[in-house]
Design a protein that fits this description.
By secondary structure, the chain is mainly alpha-helical. It has helices spanning 2-45, 53-69, 73-85, 89-102, 106-122, 126-137, 145-158, 162-175, 180-192, 196-209, 214-233. Helix content is 82%, strand content 0%. Helix 6 (126-137) packs antiparallel against helix 7 and helix 9 (180-192) packs parallel to helix 11 (214-233).
C-alpha cells in the first residue's frame, strides 16, 4: 500500500512538472509573438510619408516593449537607429554594439555595421566610418554594397573631394540602376565638377523614378542654368 502511494505521488509529480514545462513553453511562444507584434508596430510608425520626431518616439517605445519580451539583434539594431535619429548618440552606439554582440549571422552583422558607421560619421569619427564602408563594399556577407558606396561617396563629398565622391556614386548606380539616392548624389557631384552632361542625365533619371522629388527639381534648375552658362561661354 505504501509502495502504491509513493508511485502515485511520483506520477502526480511528473504530471505537475510536465504542466509547468508546457505552461513555460506556451508563455515563451506568447512572448516571442508579442515581441514580433511590437516590432511590426514600430516599423509601421516608420512607414509614414513624412516621419516626424513623434513617429520616432512612438517607434522607440514599441521596440523597447518588444525587447522586454524577446531580445533579438534586429530589435536592438532598430532601437539603435531610432536613438540615432533622435540624436541620442551615446545610447545609440551602445545599442549597436549590443546588436552586433547578439547576432551570430555575418550578413546581419554587416547590415548593422553600415548603420553603425553612419553613427560614427555623425559623432565626428569619419575615418572609422570610412574604413567600415570600404570593408563592406568588398564583403561577401554584405548584400547591398551599393549602400556602402553611397555612404562613402557622401563622406568624400563632405570633404569637398567631388571626384572621389562621383566615382563612388557611379559604382553604386552600376550595382543598383534603380537606386534613387545614388543617381541623385551622382548628379550633385557631377554638377559640382561642372560635368553638366552627366549631371543632366542623372537628374533626369531621378525625376523619372520620382517626379515629385523636390531636391531633385531644385538641382535640375541649377543644372539647366549651368548648361546655359556653358553654352554662352562657348
Amino acid at each position: 500500500m505504501k509502495k502504491f502511494e509513493n508511485s502515485k505521488l511520483l506520477t502526480h509529480t511528473i504530471v505537475f512538472s510536465f504542466f509547468i514545462l508546457f505552461v513555460t513553453s506556451c508563455e515563451k511562444k506568447k512572448n516571442v509573438s508579442l515581441a514580433q507584434t511590437y516590432y511590426k508596430m514600430s516599423m509601421l510608425e516608420l512607414s509614414e510619408t513624412d516621419i516626424s520626431e513623434h513617429n520616432y518616439k512612438r517607434a522607440l517605445l514599441n521596440i523597447e516593449k518588444a525587447l522586454k519580451q524577446n531580445v533579438k539583434p534586429e530589435f536592438l539594431a532598430l532601437k539603435a537607429t531610432l536613438l540615432f535619429n533622435l540624436g541620442h548618440y551615446d545610447e545609440s552606439e551602445q545599442s549597436f554594439k549590443d546588436a552586433m554582440n547578439e547576432t551570430k549571422e555575418d550578413h546581419v552583422k554587416a547590415e548593422i555595421l553600415n548603420n553603425y558607421a553612419c553613427l560614427l560619421a555623425q559623432k565626428k569619427q569619419p575615418e572609422k566610418a570610412l574604413k567600415i564602408w570600404q570593408d563592406l563594399e568588398h564583403s561577401k556577407d554584405y548584400l547591398t554594397p551599393e549602400v556602402a558606396y553611397v555612404n562613402e561617396g557622401k563622406f568624400w563629398y563632405d570633404q569637398q573631394n567631388h571626384l572621389k565622391a562621383k566615382e563612388c556614386f557611379q559604382r553604386a548606380t552600376n550595382l543598383a540602376p534603380e537606386y534613387l539616392d545614388a543617381h541623385y548624389y551622382l548628379s550633385l557631384a557631377a554638377y559640382q565638377l561642372k560635368d553638366t552632361p552627366t549631371a543632366k542625365n542623372e537628374i533626369k533619371t531621378v525625376l523619372f523614378l520620382e517626379p515629385e522629388h523636390k531636391e531633385a527639381q531644385k538641382l535640375s534648375q541649377s543644372i539647366n542654368k549651368q548648361h546655359k552658362n556653358n553654352k554662352t561661354q562657348s
